[in-house]
Amino acid sequence: MTTTNAISRQPTQLDYASPTQFKFSITKLPKVEYFCTEVNIPSLQISNATQVTSLRDIPLPGTKLEFGDLSLTFLVDEKFDNFEEIYTWLRSLGFPADHTEYANLVEAGRDRFPSQGKDNVSLSAGREGTAVNVGATLSDATLSILSAKNNVIKEVRFTDIFPTGLSGVGFSTQATDVQYLTSTVNFKYTLYDFAEPGKKSTLTQS
Fold first, then answer.
1. Which residues are registered as beta bridge partners of 71?
2. Exposed site from 62, 81, 118, 137, fewest CB < 10 Å?
3. Cα dihedral 189/194/19/78 (nearest 10)
């Protein structure tokens, strides 16, 4: 029979997480991150398998993880600069008017990670050393969780994110009170990890 020490399993941190104590940063969208008002830690779920028996079929954990979308809401600035940042990224991915729109997205990576040589033009705008052609379309992002004293106590690091949708904004002369315009952008990504500030990502086993 397995026994556990109840005292040693008690939590050492009794403070609650505050929904307002956060900071979000993303390499390709500096104007969006400044006006960020809402962001989420996405959901995740694992696939499952079934072991067939002569009695009840037994569910077993699978090996495929599915991550929910990263969703970010931001205040739109007066000149729509931050809205246009995401619009341009999305439009460059789809290049509806000309193939050069995608080429310009790839070229934009040079101002963050300048490299010499034609083959290096498309290094990631968000991460250095990513594969040619794909890298510049992606970025990395970090959600920093802050303490009550606004110190970073935990980071959620997103790898290879890209936008999949941007909500529209509406104007109205019928508004009785000023409600500043907001927009929401959804991202896909490879995965996300938790990490201590300034340290590598680790998995905490229990």
1. 186
2. 118
3. -40
